[in-house]
UniProtKB/TrEMBL annotation, chain A:
Name by which UniProt lists this protein: LacI family transcriptional regulator
Entry's localization field: Cell envelope
Record domain Periplasmic binding protein: where: 40-300
PANTHER family xref list: D-ALLOSE-BINDING PERIPLASMIC PROTEIN-RELATED (PTHR46847), GALACTOFURANOSE-BINDING PROTEIN YTFQ (PTHR46847:SF3)
Protein species of origin: Kitasatospora phosalacinea
């Protein structure tokens, strides 16, 4: 442990020297002498899902790898905790503050404080809703609309030659959350060109397996014909698969399934042919974040919006990716 | 109304029953579904087991029935147990963790050990609640709030914030399996409900509970060991919650420490209240609680089948619950009847004042 810490320290010192050259003393708190290691304060939403845990691990490991000292704070899904954490980061004079906002609004005051202290702020995974764009330098995260669109595009291609109506049921995420809203609208945009696609039922499954199963069971009874299931995340899709099987139908064959996330359990279901298409929502943005931190600290200009690198999975790709999946 | 002269008429006896209004509400909800889904009541055999919306309601309602059952007895003693949701999460997490880590997840022995661990922990958690309330004299709402908050964290600690997926046929049986064409979960909760009814109604236990809830001091003075009784009730509630937790996690073959049993304590309290048990303690009705739990589950199923948009679901549910509570309130019914009578016979405006208003125990 101490050896690793020492190694990290050395690496950190090297980075600090490099950044000191690059920044030219532009930052407010960069002049703490030689051997100063880049310090990042990161406030995480919480540990509400496997996805989030993978996100946290990625950030912690990437920071270690990049020789950056990470002050990590878990907000437990509460905005006031997050505001407190950011204030304490400002007091500790960290070099960069990064955070995943729990909610979209109410950040102006605390971000203004960070700006006055000349500490750049990077948003990860979720955006804030603020008129003053100078309050943060960049937003690194998934584009949920794009994810919904990818799911819809696949559907359009898959049913390009099919005549007749395609009845779709949708399992939405937690009502009002950004991923649920955006994945719904992106998907709707992608399929609206062709009237044969009909969303016959759409209900929230709260992003959980149990609810996904419960809602799908009700759909199977109330809808006479279901061709496609679109789930806003993999957990709901996995719950729905069980419901479909209990109804005596074959998931992936009788009812085609499109989902979002790309977690290990879903890829494993894909390799058994139970999910037809999965749009990746990548939590492993640690490396990209640390790169961004270094660039910001070096005074380089960075794009306002950086999308995480995300792909899509067909069953074949899922089978291939499965052995190395971390989450 | 006034023509129903004889007070002993069988119709009146039925409408007077505490189970009458919950049963009416449940029936109305079910029939309302028929308008949107013509084959709502259809039950058929599908792959060797019963398949239909009614079965679904019973199946998904089973964990809620269990949790509400424990809650009924707690509320009968004048207490409340907010920690049941966390207990649901902890028991599922412990069982799934044990099964996923064992070398032979499919063996009956592994599953029985897992059940033992989960139920044993529940006894421990219930004892802590019981001692806090009965021995230390902490207010029940505070005593169980501790475990409600901390317990969720414990469940997340056990699962490491991840969802633990298990593949074990014996474990799957509890919540997702079928026995004699019926979902096993339904049979299991029916068994627990039946056992509880027998235990409380054919022995003096139920009477003692109501006595403790109605007046703890007087109960103690006549020689009822109130303290032990109250503590035991919290253990029972935790056990019911743990069993429900096993069902929930077994149904999806996965333990979700973050979401399993989230807010189920509120649904359970609602079920108890809809079933006609007073939150002040005293008289309780297990049959009413079962009906209450089924009303809540039917409401959820209704939302899914008639396609109420998710944004308005909560408003819809709140509306139905308010109506149900109003219908169940004898004071409200009397007022409504009085107003109806007044408009019919405008000459005698004060004649129809409620005379036989039921007074809560």
């Amino acid at each position: 442990m101490s050896k690793r810490a020492a190694a990290a320290l050395v690496a950190g010192a090297m980075v600090a020297v490099l950044t000191a050259c690059g920044s030219g003393g532009g930052g407010g708190s960069a002049d703490k002498g030689a051997g100063h290691k880049l310090v990042v304060g990161f406030s995480q939403v919480g540990a509400e899902s496997g996805w989030r845990t993978a996100n946290t691990k990625s950030i912690q490991e990437s920071a270690k790898k990049a020789g950056i000292e990470l002050k990590f704070s878990d907000a437990q899904q509460k905005q006031e905790n997050q505001i407190k954490a950011i204030r304490s980061f400002i007091q500790q004079k960290v070099d960069v503050i990064a955070f995943s906002p729990v909610v979209e609004s109410g950040w102006d005051t605390v971000l203004k404080e960070a700006k006055d202290a000349h500490i750049p702020v990077i948003l990860t995974d979720r955006a804030v809703d603020s008129k003053d764009e100078s309050l943060y330098v960049s937003f690194l995260g998934s584009d949920f609309v794009e994810e919904g669109k990818k799911a819809g595009d696949w559907l359009v291609k898959e049913y390009a030659s099919a005549g007749g109506d395609v009845n779709i049921v949708q399992l939405e995420g937690t009502t009002g959350s950004a991923p649920a809203n955006d994945r719904k609208s992106g998907f709707a945009d992608a399929i609206k060109g062709e009237p044969k696609f009909k969303v016959v039922a759409s209900q929230t499954g709260d992003f959980t397996r149990a609810k996904g199963k419960e809602v799908m069971q009700a759909f199977l009874k109330s809808q006479p014909k279901i061709d496609v299931l679109y789930a806003h995340n993999d957990d709901m899709a996995l719950g729905a698969i069980q419901a479909i099987e209990e109804a005596g139908k074959k998931p992936g064959t009788d009812i085609k399934i499109v989902s979002v996330d790309g977690v290990k359990d879903a890829l494993s279901a894909m390799s058994q042919g139970k999910i037809n298409y999965d749009v990746e929502c990548n939590p492993l943005l640690g490396d990209q974040l640390m790169d961004l931190v270094k660039k910001v600290k070096a005074g380089e200009s960075v794009p306002r919006r950086i999308k995480t690198e995300e792909g899509t999975f067909t069953p074949e790709q899922a089978t291939a990716a499965l052995p190395n999946r971390q989450y | 109304m006034s023509t129903a002269a004889a007070a002993t008429s069988p119709v009146k006896a039925v409408t007077r029953s505490r189970l009458f209004w919950p049963a009416v509400v449940l029936a109305v909800l079910l029939v309302a579904n028929l308008a949107f889904t013509p084959d709502f009541f259809a039950v058929r055999l599908q792959g060797g087991h019963l398949y239909g919306s009614l079965i679904d309601i019973l199946h998904f309602g089973a964990p809620l029935i269990l949790v509400s059952l424990g809650m009924t007895l707690v509320i009968a003693t004048g207490g409340i147990d907010l920690s049941v949701g966390s207990t649901v999460a902890i028991s599922g997490a412990l069982a799934c963790l044990h099964i996923s880590e064992s070398s032979d997840p499919g063996s009956l022995g592994t599953v029985l050990t897992a059940l033992g661990i989960a139920l044993g922990t529940a006894v421990l958690l219930g004892t802590v609640n019981g001692l806090l309330v009965a021995k230390a004299g902490v207010q029940p709402i505070i005593a169980t709030l501790i475990l409600m908050v901390a317990g969720r964290g414990v469940a997340q600690l056990i699962t490491d914030g991840q969802i633990i997926t298990v593949t074990s046929d014996p474990y799957k049986m509890i919540g997702g399996g079928y026995w004699l064409t019926m979902p096993f979960a339904i049979l299991l909760s029916a068994l627990v409900v039946l056992a509880t009814v027998l235990l409380t109604r054919s022995t003096a236990l139920g009477l003692l509970l109501e006595s403790v809830g109605g007046n703890p001091v007087a109960s103690r003075l006549v020689g009822i060991r109130a303290m032990r009784l109250v503590a035991l009730v919290y253990v029972f509630s935790a056990l019911c919650a743990a069993l429900a937790g096993l069902m929930v996690s077994s149904n999806v073959s996965a333990a979700d420490g973050n979401n399993a049993g989230l807010w189920i304590e509120l649904d359970a309290i609602l079920a108890v209240v809809l079933g006609g048990t007073s939150l002040n303690g005293g008289r309780f009705s297990i049959g009413g609680t079962v009906l209450g739990a089924l009303i809540i589950q039917t409401l959820s199923t209704t939302v899914y089948t008639i396609g109420i948009p998710p944004e308005t679901t909560l408003v819809f549910k709140a509306f139905v619950v308010i109506v149900v509570c109003l219908i169940q309130s004898p004071a409200f019914r009397a007022k409504l009847a009085a107003r109806g009578a007044r408009t019919r016979r405008t000459t005698r405006s004060h004649a129809a004042a409620p005379t036989n208003r039921e007074v809560g125990a």
